[in-house]
Structure formats: structure tokens, C-alpha cells
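Lab notes, practical 5.
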Amino acid sequence: MTRQWVKGRLEKKESIYRNTYANYMIMSILWFVSNVWKILINAMRANISLATTTTAPIMYQTETLDAFSIWYSQWHGYISLLICSFGIPLNMFNITVLTQRKMLTPINCILTWLAVSDIATMASYVPFATHFYCQHSANSISAEKNSWTWMHFLLVYLNFSATTHTVSIWLGVSLAIFRHHHLQSPAKGNLTRIRRLIRARLVVFVIFVGSILVMVPNYLSHHLSEINLGDNATGYIFESWELGSGKERPIILVGLFLYSILAKLVPCVLIIVYGSLLLITLNNTIRNKRRRLNENGVCMGSQRHASRTTVMLLIVMILFLITELPQAVLIMCCIFFKDFFEKVYIPLGDAMDIIALVNSSINFVLYCTMSQEFRRTFIRLFCSCSAAMFQRQPKSYISTQLRHNELHATFIERTQ
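Output from the prediction step:
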């Protein structure tokens, strides 16, 4: 009795320490974000006042960056098409496997819609890369390349791609929150599973609708203007935003602030917070597993599966941070520094696009590597020969029968 009481007290103290540490970490991150926000606001005010008092531009040493951008743009279209040609079918495999009846869980529901968003991102990128990179040079302007039809397609693509990226990163946030909630309250039962599945579907719906609403100012920021290319030929280009000059239209600043904060910074901060909590939970799970191994010599398979699932989701979230956090910083710099958009952000655009495409196409490999249940379901659906090989009966066996209180054994050998 005394031993159980002491053990209970230790577990209670450990839980209090864990919660206190988590709360301290969350408060530290929020304090850091608030101070960064104050610095950005002060920088914006200083930049606006500077733009109204002087016209001296900021000099950027971008010769190497421009040279890299020009060289890589020759290959970017073909590399991106190669990634999309693999990524779209692989995400279709993800949807097919994750929507099976035995795979219906809240986490898999979110992963399914993440695959849908990734397919939409890559499918829209295929005609964009084909026309603006493969058929025409990325650094040229012509009547055929910059026609009214293709420039309006580019306008739709930019808004659509930004929306799907926003959906994807918020789905990543919901993955972290749902996984943390499941580990903190691992209630089982059919009714609980149905409730959580309905909750996950509702969250996915809210994310899609909210992402569209957040991007409305961005939809209204882009405008096309007609230019004369000579020989009675005309083309269309985007109007300059004049970022960092203090002459930007308010709708452009609102759109960039909403996009960089609500679609980039805030999701990344939430992923860091809940990812850290998942790391703490995973560390405690491994510690408890070692304790049980030392005490009983037995390790439960369900705990091992839960740890693998948590590690898999942590990798997904890290990939989101690698893809989205640098873009958030660059967009903020575009708002505050003149010519940063043209001199730095645009030359880095192709590199950021290829990183996002890789992030959208790599999840299938991650699921197959980390999830045994995903592998089994995929083999059962698409590799019937392999499944039959794993489930085939032995070539020979011994049959036993009890007759007249005597045990008779018969050796049977199969011919096939």
C-alpha cells in the first residue's frame, strides 16, 4: 500500500512538473512572438517615415542570387514537373489507403484532406510550369507568353496556390492538436471514435472556409496592366506593388499582413508549441516503456505503434516549418524594406516553390516508412501478389485427430 502511494505521489509530481514546463514554454514562445511583433511594427513605422523623408534606395548585393536564379530557372520547370508526376499519384495512394474503413480515424481524416490539398497544389502547378518555364523562358516577356488568357490563368493560380498552402499548414496544426489531445485523453470506444471523427471533419471544413476568407484581401491585390511589345503586339504584366516605399495600397498591406501572420507565422508558432508538447509526451512514453521493460520485461505493441505515429506526425510538422517559416520571414521583409520583393523574394521564388512541392509529395514515403498499418493496407489494396505471398499456407503440415481415445497424426504434403 505504501509503495503504491509513493508511486502515485511521484507520478503526480511528474505530471505537475510536465504541465508547468509546458506552460512555461508556451508563455516564453508567446512572449517572444509579442516582442517580435512590436519590433516589426516599430520597423514598419520607421520604414514609412523614412520613405516619406528620403528617396535613397537600399542597396542589395544580389549578383550571386540573380545568377543562381537565372541558371536554375532553366531547369526548374522540368524538375517541378518530375516531382508532380510522382507526387500526384502518391497522394492518390494516400487518399485511397486512408479512406478505407479500418483506417478511419481523426488523424487519418486530416491526413486525407492534406493529401487532397497537396494534389490541388501540384495539379495547378503543372500547367504553370509547362507554359512559363518549359515552353517559354522564365525571364522573357512575349505576346504569346504574356497573353490575356495565360496571365489571367497566372492570376488565378497565384491565389489558388496561396489558398492551398494556407489550408495545408493549418491542417498540419490540427494534426498536432488532435494528436496531443488523443495522447492526453486516450479514451477508446466506438462512440468516442465517432465523435472525434465528426470533430475532425468539422475542423477540416472550418480550415477550408477560414483559409478562403483570410485570402480575400490577397485576391483583391493583384491587377494586370497592358503593355506594348512592339510590332502591334501587346502583353500583360502585373502592376507593381511598390512595397517598402510607403506608397502601397492599403489592401496590399492588409493582404500581406494577413497572409504572413495568419497563414505563416501563427501556424508555425502553434506547430512549435504543440510539437514540443508531443516531444515531451513521447519522451515520457519512452521512459515509461523502459520502466515496464525493467519491471516486467514486456513492451506493449500499442505503445510502440503510438510512438511511431507521434514521430511520423512530428516529421510532418518539421517539414511544414522548413517550408513555411522562411517564407513568413521573407514576406515580412518585403513589407518593411524597399525593393526587397524584386531583389530578393522573386529570385528565391523558384527555390521556395520546389521545397513546397517536395513537401507535398514526400508524405507517402513517410507513411510507408513509419506506419505498419498503412503498409499492410497498401499491400492488401495494390499488391495482391505480395499479399498472397505473405498469407500463403505452408507446403506441408501435420494433421492430428482423436479417434477411440487415441491420437493419430498424419503428415500431409501439398503438391502446389
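Observations recorded by the TA: Residues 65 and 347 are 7 Å apart (CA to CA). The radius of gyration is 28 Å.
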